[in-house]
Amino acid sequence: MPTRKGMEVSIAVSEAVKLANVDVISAYPITPQTHIVEHLSELVADGDLKAAFVPVESEHSALSAAIGAAAVGARAYTATSSQGLALMHELMFIASSIRMPLVMTVTNRAISAPINIWNDLSDIMPQRDCGWVQLFAINGQEAVDLTLHAFRIAEDPRVLLPVVVNLDGFILSHVIEPVEMPDQATVDRFLPVFKPVLRLDPDQPVSLGNFGSPDVFIEVKKQVEEALIGSEKVAAEVWKDFESLFGRTYKPVESYKTKGAETLLVTMGSITETAMTAVDAMREKGQKVGLIHIRLWRPFPFKEFFQAIRGAKVLAVVDRALVTGGVGGPVGLEIKSALFEKKERPYVAEFVAGLGGRDLTVEVFAEMASKAGRYAKAGKEMHYEMIGVREK
Amino acid sequence: MAKIDALHPWKEVPIGCAILEAGNSRQLKTGDWRSKIRPVTDKEKCIKCGMCWIFCPDMAYSQNTDGYFDWNTYYCKGCGICARECPKKAIQMIAEEE
Fold first, then answer.
1. pLDDT of B53-86, one tens digit each?
2. Any idea which architecture A253-386 has in CATH?
3. With 70 as the cut, is the pLDDT of residue A60 above it?
4. ipTM given for this complex
5. Is A148 in contact with A178 (CB distance < 8 Å)?
6. What whole-number distance in Å separates Cα of residue A339 and Cα of residue A335?
7. Looking at CA atoms only, how far is residue A210 from chain B in angstroms?
8. Domain with CATH 3.40.50.970 in chain A
9. pTM (predicted TM-score)
10. So what CATH class is A4-246?
């Protein structure tokens, strides 16, 4: 029987990568991702993980090498953060468009400038449209489990797309949490050996990463889009399988105390657990507040989202990145567009908060929930409100 | 670049624009257009040095069994580099016949 053990979440993620029996790890260290790849390099050096560890000279090369490894049929893994992810940007599109099912952990950290190593989602949000499946972990256990799910989803022949598992830098990656590490035998049953559909093989030569003229480019993009949308169904199957083997349940959108709730906080990532504590406190005071958190960000799970918000009058959306010069943050933008065609829709109050590691406390979530309620009552027209910014 | 011999619906395009058949670039004929001039070699002047073959950017020249270099109509663009580089001025660019 697996037991729960206190572990630093970064170490737990690298142990999950080891359980996934990866063949190739290519990585370049960057705060706060470092502990993950450092531990993996130790596991390889000590002979505990039979994989090739490729110490590259940049993140651009880290993702390139992972793409190359996946192209020969290896199970490939990389991890990065912030500026490192930005440096991977052009390869992000290539990995998805040539259908390389690799897995990457992103320990979310603010993008410079000013130089800042603390947490927000401004690194991953600009990668929203790269054609990757994107998952968000709210705690250490999810970070471990989603890493295993990621390989299954990525390698499914109906998907064949790269997957990113997001976990908040420091506030999740560097904390010690009780984690139940799955046992190897059950993981092997859950995650069989990767069988590539196409791979570089001298005996059966194929070319990958080719030129695509205007005659074929749109068709290739359509394939990626359909595979990405279809990955939601595959994720549901993977989660069902995982539940039967490990007993833990995963859904694209999760609800917390939504029954009878008029206002719903909408969150992503590890701030969710702080927000839950805020919901508990507000519920104790008799306020009709609940929470939903989005685990599957890409593809966006519209159906589950609409189901989860049913009955709610007000949404208080918490964004931790800014769509500059636009209407707020990426999550708010997504939700408002999704609701546009609905005849009955809740009032959406959009908050941009926690940029560059500014603390998001229980009190801040209570403030956002109550502001959302007040704005809805007053029918206030709002694009978004930046929380905690000093005016004087 | 892959030869596009048919415009497939998106479901039938090889996944991720992969090319599944080795060496098919050979089937890609790039000479379906040419500027309105083409090279003609005067075999009296030609010394079979192969400079035309070396300089041709489209690799349109190849050596035949008697050692002279002939150009392949499927690839020549009529750029005239061969004529310019020929040390014996053996190549003339002449107008294409309509």
1. 999 998 899 999 999 999 887 889 999 999 999 9
2. 3-Layer(aba) Sandwich (3.40)
3. yes
4. 0.85
5. no
6. 6
7. 6
8. 4-246
9. 0.90
10. alpha beta
